[in-house]
Amino acid sequence: MALQERFHRIVVDALTRDRLVLPTLPEIVLHVRQLVQREDVSAATLAAELQKDPALAVRLIRVANSAAQRGGHRVDNVRQAVTRLGFDYTRLLVSGLAIEQMFTRGAPWLEARLRRTWRQSVDVAAAAQVLAAHCTLLNPEMAMLAGLVHDIGTLPILRLAEMNQASIDNERELDEVLDVLSPRIGRLVLQAWHFPPELIDVPERWRDFRDDHDGAPTLADVVRVALLQSAAGREKPYALIDRAGVPAYRKLDVSPDVDVMKMDGYVSLFDGGQSAAA
C-alpha cells in the first residue's frame, strides 16, 4: 500500500508541526535517576523516594523476592529490595515499570498490539542483558534498557492511531507507517527522556540487520541478535532473515543456534515479578 495514505500524512504532519505527543517519564523515575548518580545515596534514601509510589514499591519487593527464589532470603520492605537488586538494577527496574504502564491501556482494538509490543520489548531486553554480559564488554544493564526501548517509537504512533482510527484503512497501513516512522520517532522520545547517546541511536540502528560496521559490538548489534533469538525472532518478518548472514552474530562471536534462555544469568525483570531464568 502506498505511503501517501491518510494516516501516514497525519503522522508526518504531527511531526513537522511539532504536535506529536511524546510519552513522558514520571517524576519518580527522574528523581530515582538523580539519586542513584549521587555518591552519598543510601538504600534507605532511595527506598524513601520509591515508597512515594506504593504500586511501584510493591512491584520492587515482588521482583526482589523472585530473585530470592534463586537463592537468598525473602525481603519484606523496599529498602531490603533495593539492597537485593542493587542501585543500577533498581533504577533500570523503575524506568522499565514506568514504560510498561505506557503500554497497558488503550482502545479495545489497540490493546492487543500494545501488549504484543511490550512483550517483545521484555523478551528482547532479557536476551540483550545476558548477551551483553557473556559476549561483549558493554554494560549489561544498559543493554537491557536498550532492549526495552528499542521499539519505543511505536508508542506515540499507536496513541495517534487511537485518536485517528477513522483515518486508518487497515492494519497493513498502520504496519507500514510504523516501519517507516517509528525509528525516527523513537530517537525523539529517547532524546526527550535525556537518555545517553548510545541508547538514543538504538531505535534507528537496530533494524539494519546487514550493518557490518568496524569496531566493537554496539547496543544495536546486541538488540539485533537478542530480537532474532527471542520469541519475536520466530515470527514474520524476522523468521525470514538469514541469521548466518547477519554480521552482528560475528560481532558477538555467538552462533545463530544459541538458546539465550539457557545462558547463565538469563532473567526477565519485567514479567510481573516472576523470574524467567532457566
Structural topology:
Layout: H1 6-16, H2 27-36, H3 43-50, H4 54-68, H5 78-85, H6 87-102, H7 108-135, H8 140-149, H9 154-163, H10 171-192, H11 197-200, H12 202-205, H13 219-229, H14 247-252
Helix pairs in contact: 1-10, 2-3, 2-6, 3-5, 4-5, 6-8, 7-8, 7-13, 8-13, 9-10
Structure description:
About 60% of the residues lie in helices and about 0% in strands. Residues about 270-278 have low confidence and may be disordered. The protein folds into 2 domains: about 15-100, no CATH class; about 105-278, Hypothetical protein af1432, CATH 1.10.3210. It is mostly helical and about 280 residues long.
CATH class of the largest domain, please?
Mainly Alpha
Query: How much is the average pLDDT?
Result: 88
Q: Please give the domain count.
A: 2
H and E string? HHHHHHHHHHHHHH
Work out the radius of gyration.
19 Å
Beta-strand percentage range: under 5%
* Count of DSSP strands: 0
Which superfamily, in CATH terms, is the homologous superfamily of the largest domain? Hypothetical protein af1432
Structural class: mainly alpha
Task: Let me know the largest β-sheet.
Answer: none
Distance between the termini: 43 Å
Quaternary structure type:
single chain
Examine the coordinates and then state which fold CATH places here, giving the name of the CATH topology of the largest domain: Hypothetical protein af1432
The tally of helices reads 14
Measured as a percent range, the helix fraction is 55-70%
Could you list the spans in which at least 5 consecutive residues all have pLDDT below 50? 272-278
Query: Which descriptor suits the 3D outline?
Result: globular
CATH architecture title of the largest domain: Orthogonal Bundle
